[in-house]
Design brief:
The structure holds 2 protein chains of 2 kinds. By secondary structure, chain A is α/β, with parallel strands linked by helices. Chain A is built from 14 helices and 11 strands. Classes of the chains: A alpha/beta, B mainly alpha.
């Protein structure tokens, strides 16, 4: 086994036991990046020198017996997290020359935990999309088949993990941007409860939805990363003051008799291969002693409409700050997708239309929040497919004004309600593309969905498959 | 549905040519038609949700903490003068 193939947990163990150094591990990842990047394009900016320097520092600390959660672990960071002194573009020409003077809280936390930063990963420009094709710096490709999309917007992050370029990744999700690319690339993606992880220094897309979170090779790694990232931050007033939990430790205690809710609407119009795969996974959960219960959730198609209005309204407001005066380039540098979203958002917030669109969407949002709350009185978690399709062919997002919103139809309802969700691989299609399912839980019950996903991962071996690169 | 795309583009402060405006106008209409399905849901007695944290009126002590240096704060501006950001004049003589 190559060093770059290790999980965070495995690599940490190896580093603590002095079987290899962080410098060796980091060099292995950098070599892997050099080998596969020409085909995959997961990164916008590589910080090779900084990585090797951080690795040397980590080796020194490891030598002195220091123990930290991510000490010496090479990690990739999505390019919408501000990194002090390192160019941060959100994959948009508007920010092609922007060098932040401070670190995002998520970046500060992983750095303090000892992580080695490999570089900044590609994404849909300003996170507007689910393909990573709207990046102004070129699309990323799916390691399972380079003619396919990796998903998005955290496409580069998911690719970097699936292709073993990084040991783990920090991504962000507004509605699908962690879980969908993780799903299409066959890795684990955790979207925490809104407010569980600070948004400070994350380039804003839709502020009432944005949630930073990890993309990893295993559920255990997702728990470990969440432990580092979660917590209250005085710099983000919407971050929760509720205490965090020892997520990794809580995996060891197997949760019994979990009632799993499934809703027919989440299987409608979904690729039959995916339906079969998720049903097979549900049988696995029954064998583990859990119960599957049919429930009726709000039709996700309404959530797509709610999400479209809320997200685009908040996008138009957030992107109003880009004037090219204080930093970045002017408004003529926006790509087509950003223009499209700004226009709709501006329209739905404008005089005479606010009540018909934005206010209406906020009211239906209430109904979706209440619908999930009711569901969680009956069931402990909800399981469904992550995406209605496996990775779509490159070029699919072009000229489809609702591509992102529609391909994330099954992820938007839980995002609108601010719930945590995790995507894990649960099969492969005939075309050898990963198929994934999501586990959704009540607010701040990351420990529960991680536990359920971990149980599944322990009795299946999808995780051991690697793309042929 | 008639949308004054030129007016919306002006509100959004987006420099768009005729051709882009036409394309965006069509796509805007297409998206709004999709959104129209929300009108199938009665919401007369429903309160709007603007965020889901349950937190309200978060305040902090009004104390000064270490700010960015002036140099760092204006470091990304395309044009500066004596630590200030240079902008185009908006008033004419």
């Amino acid at each position: 086994m190559e060093l770059y193939e290790l999980t965070v947990a495995e690599a940490s163990k190896g580093l603590q036991e002095k079987r290899f150094s962080s410098s060796e591990l980091t060099s292995a990842c950098l070599e892997r990046i050099r080998a596969v990047e020409p085909e995959l394009h997961a990164f916008v900016t590589l910080t090779e020198e900084q990585a090797l320097e951080q690795a040397r520092k980590a080796d020194f600390l490891l030598g002195s017996g220091e123990v930290r959660d991510l000490l010496g672990i090479p990690i990739s960071i999505k390019d919408n997290f501000c990194t002090n002194g390192v160019r941060t573009t959100a994959s948009s020409n508007v920010l092609k020359n922007f060098v932040p003077p401070y670190d995002a809280t998520a970046v500060r936390l992983i750095t303090e935990a000892g992580a080695v930063s490999l570089g900044k990963t590609n994404m849909d420009a300003f996170a507007h999309g689910s393909s990573t094709e709207t990046s102004d710096f070129g699309a990323s490709r799916n390691p399972w088949n380079i003619e396919r999309l990796p998903g998005g917007s955290s496409g580069g992050a998911a690719v970097s993990v699936a292709a073993d370029e990084a040991i783990a990744a920090v991504g962000s999700e507004t509605a699908g941007s962690i879980r969908q690319p993780a799903g299409w690339c066959g890795v684990v993606g955790l979207k925490p409860t809104y407010g569980r992880v600070s948004r400070h220094g994350l380039i804003a897309m839709a502020s009432s939805l944005d949630s930073p979170g990890p993309i990893t090779k295993s559920v255990e790694d997702a728990a470990l990363m969440l432990e580092v990232l979660a917590g209250h931050d005085p710099l983000d007033a919407t971050s929760s003051p509720l205490p965090t939990k020892p997520y990794r430790e809580l995996l060891k205690e197997k949760r019994e008799n979990v009632t799993i809710g499934i809703s027919d609407d989440y299987f409608e119009g979904v690729d039959p291969e995916i339906v079969t795969a998720v049903q097979t996974a549900l049988l696995e959960f029954e064998r583990l002693g859990h119960r599957v219960k049919r429930i009726k959730l709000f039709d996700p198609h309404y959530a797509v409409a709610v999400y479209t209005i809320i997200q685009r309204s908040e996008v138009s407001s957030n992107l109003a700050r880009y004037d090219g005066i204080r930093y970045g380039c002017g408004r003529d540098a926006f790509g087509e997708e950003a223009q499209r979203r700004i226009m709709l958002g501006t329209y739905s917030l404008s005089a005479g239309y606010y009540d018909a669109y934005y206010a209406k969407a906020q009211k239906v949002r209430t109904l979706i929040v209440e619908d999930f709350a009711r569901a969680f009185e009956e069931v402990d978690v909800v399981i469904g497919p992550t995406s209605p399709s496996t990775a779509l062919p490159a070029g699919s997002s072009k000229n489809h004004p609702l591509f992102g919103e529609v391909s994330d139809a099954l992820l938007e309802p839980s995002s609108i309600a601010g719930l945590p969700g995790i995507s894990v691989c649960c099969s492969f299609s005939k075309e050898l593309l990963p198929i994934s399912m999501q586990v959704i839980g009540p607010h701040f019950m990351e420990d529960l969905i991680l536990n359920v996903a971990h149980q599944y991962e322990q009795v299946t071996d999808w995780r051991s498959r690697k793309p042929d690169l | 549905m008639e949308i004054d795309v030129e007016h919306v583009a002006k509100l959004a402060n987006l420099p768009l040519d005729e051709k882009r405006l036409e394309i965006l106008g069509k796509q805007l209409t297409e998206t709004l038609l999709y959104i129209d399905r929300l009108n199938e849901i009665p919401t007369e007695k429903v309160e709007p949700t603007s965020q889901v944290t349950g937190l309200t009126n978060i305040t902090r002590d009004d104390t000064v903490s270490a700010p960015l240096s002036q140099e760092a704060a204006v470091g990304n501006a395309p044009e500066t003068h004596n630590g200030y950001i240079v902008v185009d004049a908006i008033l004419e003589e």
